[in-house]
From TrEMBL, chain A:
Main location: membrane
GO cellular component: plasma membrane
Recorded GO MF terms: branched-chain amino acid transmembrane transporter activity
Name of the protein: Branched-chain amino acid transport system permease protein LivM
Automatic annotation (TrEMBL), chain C:
Keyword match Nucleotide-binding: yes
GO CC annotations, alphabetized: plasma membrane
The name this protein goes by in its record: Branched-chain amino acid transport ATP-binding protein LivG
UniProt keyword terms in alphabetical order: ATP-binding, Nucleotide-binding, Transport
GO molecular function, one term: ATP binding
Chloroplast among keywords: no
UniProtKB/TrEMBL annotation, chain D:
Protein name: Branched-chain amino acid transport ATP-binding protein LivF
Source organism (scientific name): Nocardioides simplex (Arthrobacter simplex)
PANTHER family: HIGH-AFFINITY BRANCHED-CHAIN AMINO ACID TRANSPORT ATP-BINDING PROTEIN LIVF
Family assignment from sequence similarity: Belongs to the ABC transporter superfamily.
One Pfam short name: ABC_tran
Coiled coil: none
Domain of life per record: Bacteria
UniProtKB/TrEMBL annotation, chain E:
InterPro entries, per the entry: ABC_transp_permease, BCAA_transport_permease
UniProt topology in membrane: Multi-pass membrane protein
Keyword Transmembrane helix in record: yes
Protein name in the entry: High-affinity branched-chain amino acid transport system permease protein LivH
Keywords linked to the UniProt accession: Amino-acid transport, Cell membrane, Membrane, Transmembrane, Transmembrane helix, Transport
Amino acid sequence: MSARLPNVAGVLGLVLLVVWAGSDLYRSSLLVTMLTYALVALGMYVPFVLAGSLSLSYSAYAATGAYAVAIGTAHAGWPLWLGMLVAPPVAAIIAVVLGAATMRLSGFYLGAVTLLFAEAFIQLLGNLGVTGGPSGIVGLPLLSFGGWEPSPQQTVLMAVVLTGVLALALDRLRRSPWGVVIRASREVPIAVDTAGVSVSVLNLVALGAGAAIASLGGALFTTYVGAVNPETFSVNVIFLAVFMPLIGGIGNPWGAVLGAAIVVHLTLNVDSLASSGTLLVSLSVLVILVLFPRGVLGFAGTAARGGTTLLTTVTKRGART
Amino acid sequence: GSSGDDDNGDTVVIGLVCDTTGPGAGYATPACTATKETIDQVNADGGIDGKKVKVVQGNDESDPTKTPTVIQKLVSQGADALLMLTSSAGVLQAKSLIERTKIPVFMPVAANPQVTEPPSNTYLYQLGTPTSDWATVYCAAFDSLGAKKVAFLQDSSPSQVQFNKGLIDSLDCVDLDVVNGAIDATDLSAEVAKIKNAGPDAVLVATQNANFDVLAQNTLHQQLPGVPRFTELLLSSLPSAWAQAQPGALEGLVGLAGTTDTNTRTVEVAQFFAETEGADFRVNNFWTQSYDAVQILKQAIEESGTTDGEKLNAAIQEVTGFVASSGYPGFTLSFGDDKHLGADGICGLVLVEWDKDNQVAGPWSGYEPDCAA
Amino acid sequence: MTTADPLLSGSGLSKSYGGVHAVSDVSFTLHAGEVLGLIGPNGAGKTTLVDLVTGAQDADTGELVLTGSPLRGGAAHRAAQGLARTFQHPQLALDLSVADNLLLGAYAARHRGLGRLLAGLVRGILRPHAPADRALAERLATSVGISGLDRHARDLTLGEQRLVEVGRALGAEPCVLLLDEPFAGADAHGVAGTTRVIEVLRGAGHGVILVDHNVDLVTTLADRVMLMERGRVAFEGSPADCLASPEMQRVYFGTAPEEVAS
Amino acid sequence: MTALEIAGLFVRYGGALAVDDIALSVPPGQVTALVGPNGAGKSSAVLATCGTVRSTGEVRLDGERVDGWSPGRRTRAGLALVPQGRQLFSRLTVRENLLIGADQLRLPARSVAAAEERFPILAERRSSLAGVLSGGEQQMLAVARALMGRPRALLLDELVTGLAPLIVQQLATTVRALADDGLAVLVAAPDLVGLRDVVDRGYVLVRGRVVAEVEGGHRPLQSAYERALGLAVG
Amino acid sequence: MVGLRAGLRGMTNPQLWIAVVENGCFFALLGLAFYFNLTGAGFFNFGIGAIAMAAAFTGSWLVTEHGLSRPLAGVVGVLGAIAIAVVMELAVVRPVQARGEGELSALVAVGASLFTIIQLSGLFLGHEARSGQPFWSTAPFSVGSARVGSTVVPIVVITAALFTLSYLALQRTRLGRLTRAIGNDTDAARVLGLPINTARLLSFAAAGLIAALAGITFAGRSGVSPDNALHWTITGFLALVIGGTGTVWAPLLGGALLALANVFIPFYFGGDVLAYGLVVVAMLFFAFRPEGVFAPRVRV
Ligand SMILES: Nc1ncnc2c1ncn2[C@@H]1O[C@H](COP(=O)(O)OP(=O)(O)OP(=O)(O)O)[C@@H](O)[C@H]1O
Ligand SMILES: Nc1ncnc2c1ncn2[C@@H]1O[C@H](COP(=O)(O)OP(=O)(O)OP(=O)(O)O)[C@@H](O)[C@H]1O
Ligand SMILES: CC(C)C[C@H](N)C(=O)O
Ligand SMILES: [Mg+2]
Ligand SMILES: [Mg+2]
């Protein structure tokens, strides 16, 4: 019962957001940014929250998705959606190759190398010809499926469905046998290894799956905005991707989606003139972590349980009097 | 661009994207202040065509993933035109969006010419001077020193490398030795040692990052004393950065600047800003170019009598010979269908020299372009 | 393979750390349906030997053969060949429930190798729960005698954690189980649980290596006993012979007075 | 007079009651056992006595109320603990682990040498990291650390778990000697293996409650324990 | 032959070695600050770079805007840094860790603190870079053909002093031993009743002190701005991780290796290769030393 609750609330929340955005282009744009972040954060959820492996090259995977769409369209004349299909496997391959090269690393050692990789990747994107160099690739056509051009709302709707489906899938995965094995590998790798699943291989799979999901975030953003450049997914994105699940609550992948919504609201939608979005986000991370240890979802869960108890007591008492 | 609910026909709405808290805050903050003060003055003088100017503002913290949304927000608030005081990377990210949104966008202080190059540049304008003009000025300066072999020290960030490409191509007057340094380097000794080994007649530091520039000047001053040094446009506009240099490290450095007080327009504009900014105020091209951007927009709206994006854009492309408040007297800005960089000729560029107190002493005596108008 | 062929054998196994020879030149055999007791003073090298066999640590020298083929590779690979173990310091995922910890062995068995790992990922999304798994958890819990499947492993006492480890190993359906001090700190109930598991495996023709300091229990349960001392095998034989051996007297009960500190 | 006196002790973890209103007295010169099955609450009671888990109830040391004191203060007042499990600092050397104990008791550094002598292997491995020792060697280190100085009361939680019979015998002798010296000793364990001969009296703990208090050595205690277990199962 | 001569020209250029020493000292000090936190509290304090920045930035602001003398501003900067570190522990890390939520939450909390400090510095003192105001600098002098800048001698002396003091404090004093024990295993320390809170607080304060001295001194070379904080954090973290977290000297070695890469990669391969070079070097390095140079290995 209670395991279903976040799923129901998450789907409901996404539906409400779509209704709220309606045909407003600004709100749609907010929503696309939120979904972009959410996808990157969901990508990070698999290796980071479940497997506990601190891979920090998430800006590179998002950028891979973005460039897959942009390069495919600009150089090969693909439709945008084809790029979106190609992005996940390409990002997964990059992640697995990087993961294999750093196979012996764990914890902060892995974090250090992957962070350096993320920085070098940005540099690489700016130096290659096929990526359009530092000015990147602009002026991509609109999304079109063999002639049908979805409206911005329809595009947003598709992105919402994609994100929702992924969050649901990750939640199921988390509770599945596979999820149990990978969560155990975070705490007691030796126990998993001696039970027959190689933790290094497991981590590679997690890194690949996470990169594939994150690349969808980059692909979505570029599809919607029609442009990409090396700085589009900067190192900042990595830190946001680490923050978002924690803000929302790491107990559930929906926490990452909720965290993305909160971050986007605070940085872009709160109307305090010229205020710093970064300041608002980091302050709220601090407040949330100190006040609601299990993130907003965890807090909501406790509150809901508390509320239910209160409600039942009240109704019982009401029935008696 | 008259879709928002606030736009009821008797106001002109200008959207302002200022990076006041991110990596661009150093230059965006003064430029943003200048823009708002200019708009206040326009309003005090009766507005544009009798309509008050209303400012809507956003902050993208120079983060390209945020820029498109911030632009959409301002557009949804009814912006008829945008002034973007943020990084080129953010605007590059939003180019396609701007093309679809169809409202004119000025980047008053941006120095990266890729922004206004095709594709998707129909609505984008810059006031800065093209790097080919910089090359003309540098070549003349090198010539006056008799420098044949010049070391070119640039930060290796992709955008800077791209930015300098045109400049390097145009600097064919000298034998150029290009040396790259990491943009966030904590040390440039290795780069300077390479330069020293090559034995150049002069060094040109080419970066849009003030920290890199100061670190380079400190190191060059220490290790290549006596070799003439040049820098690009940014440093002259950032007095706070001069203070970062070690004592005497900037002495003799020659840099590009955007203003000179021989230009009476500049002096007038400086006096205007000094009224609110106080007596210590020192003008530079962040202020004058922001000022001019507002004036050009005003002129275009008045000429076209509309705030409709496409018509306004056409009117901007009609602006020619606008007398700028920066550069040498008589320096003008013009725009056209295929001219999105405003500067007409090299007279927007002034070479200045630093003194032993690390202060800009005034125009460099070595070379001055012929701009007697 | 004839019935006399050992299930698992090791020869010339050694491991040293700097100057410490934790295991030196140890050879052993384990037959199908046999329980091999491994005893010896503290620091004799018992845990290290278990580590070398299971691949938790790499041996400096030595060979291992399991059902006629050489046993090599990392811990995961060896587990896939049918080895399972428990740890002297219990290694439970404390954030997971008791049920999930018990099922970990069985779950891991289903995900051995890249192909099954990827298939398991997809299967996990499509069908996260199988009612049979819950039943399996309950069966494992009953085997070792533990209750409260939905508790957090964090809330278990050390004794309970050991039992869960035994259950987890049983769930992997091993052909050789290595138990490192399963009786340490266990009460009668816990001893009974672990004993049941040992008997089940012996009955099924599998092999068990049992390390413990409870000599009474080890000699009762084991078919053969190996006594280690300072990394070497000091005695090997039937429990009765072992108990009667002078080596046992010396090493374990300290008839050599200079060994005892005052 | 009783050295250590515990009354009305409760320990709760979240909603669960691990120790439910128990009273224990640990007289000087005697070895008192606290036996009970796994999960009975032995460790919880011991840790509560030392102040390292939250509890309510009275703890008196030589008549003085010490509940409310910090664990460090209780240690300095003469309450020594050998905790269950691996409570060592794995990345400190053997010697440093002992020094931590000495520091805590405000003992001079040289007292460490005496502690090392108790178990020759510790002296031999004094500059190894504690984390590389075998399980039993680690247990010896924990025991040696607690037996430094002159505590008034000694709480031993699963003292002999993981130790080979030889060492167990030797520790039993040590415990007897310490008690004979006037120390109050409490040993907690799920059975009496190894310590039978040194136990003077004891308590049987089942599901957080004391179900029997027994005087007169290990035999009556053992039968009380067996009876209690029968009860607990039934 | 040409290659060899060019190769030698770099390695024999004393100017480059001075740069290695100066940068190496700075990286090492940041790494040492990380090390103190790691030893005493068992986790990586990603706020270090921000603390170093805030000390240097505030000091500079006090000197240039309020005319304080450099030593006084330095003292204020250092005390401020210690205060930030202590507040971080008391208001952020301790409450978060007390919930038993593990390392992850605390880590994100210090990450958020890093950005908060950067933004608050910008908000109150401005986002523009400021000149460094080291409380101690020496007149530049020449050694052969090389120039030794005004900050080189101070940073070398401070580094030598702080490393020696740290070594003595952590390895030779009771408090140091206690701190290491607590950072090693907080649960065991709790069971034994060791004064965890005090030792942790001291380790945070020490980290703040070291970071502040590093930041203030190094800012003397080319100034400081809030933007430096993140890069400084990453640098200090790398210095410690490459060194290997095993001893006090680890960050010194790690800092030196990092500085070598930062100076000689640009010299031989160009500055644009630095980013790639660092990844390749780090990967190769960690392939052989997955846990840094000095790594304590204990069993499970
Ligand atoms: N990583 C290591 N570094 C140094 N010495 C080690 C290491 N691992 C084990 N040793 C030493 O090797 C010896 C054997 O250890 P092992 O854990 O195998 O003993 P054991 O027989 O299991 O003892 P116990 O019964 O106490 O658990 C011990 O003296 C131990 O200190
Ligand atoms: N930190 C904790 N959180 C929640 N429950 C706990 C915690 N520690 C112990 N418990 C529970 O409290 C009860 C008593 O535990 P305790 O460790 O005191 O038992 P014990 O008698 O020492 O058992 P053992 O012989 O296995 O060591 C057990 O049911 C245990 O599950
Ligand atoms: C110097 C600045 C005005 C230029 C800015 N860095 C840009 O990229 O546009
Ligand atoms: Mg062992
Ligand atoms: Mg216990």
